[in-house]
Structure formats: structure tokens, C-alpha cells
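Board notes (copied after class):
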Amino acid sequence: MAKPREKLQELFEGILGNCNVYFQPPESKSLDYPCIVYERSGIRADSANNKIYRKHNQYTVTYIDEDPDSEIPGKLLELGYCKLDTHFEADNLNHDVFTLYF
């Protein structure tokens, strides 16, 4: 059975249409664009009656592309429990940063 992060990796590759999806890449790693870079940033726990009944891993997901009008950010927003946090441009690349619970 695939782990949730492996399922998320496959989901991102399907949205992007290629394998340029990187989980916590080291700074020395050369990235191919457009790409998705993601990392686990926490765990959200839902509770009631002093008991946790559901947990969701929280990920910070960054989509990086030269094209400022790419459709990929919109596709990422269609995922459940996903929100756009910020957009910025650096080194002539557009970065869209999301928080995703998966």
C-alpha cells in the first residue's frame, strides 16, 4: 500500500504532466522548470471530547514556472484543503506558494 506522501507525489506528477516534482530537495539539487517543490510543514489534528479523531499532514507546496499565466496554480487550488498563501517573482521565475492538507 502506498504511503500518503507517495500518493501526493503521483498526484502532483499527474497535475504537472511530468516528473519535475521534488520533495524537500537539497540546495545542491538542480531543478527543472516548471516544477513543484513540497515539504511537510506540520500536522493538523481535529479533536472532540479531548481525543484526536483525524490527522492531516500539512505541506508547503511551491509551484515554480517562467510562465506567469500557467494553469497549474488553478489546478492545485482545485485540490481539497488547498489555499494559495503568496505569489512572488525571483530570478525571472514565478513562485506560487500553497498550504495543502493531505
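Comment from the instructor: The chain has a mean pLDDT of 94. The helical segments are 4-16, 72-77.
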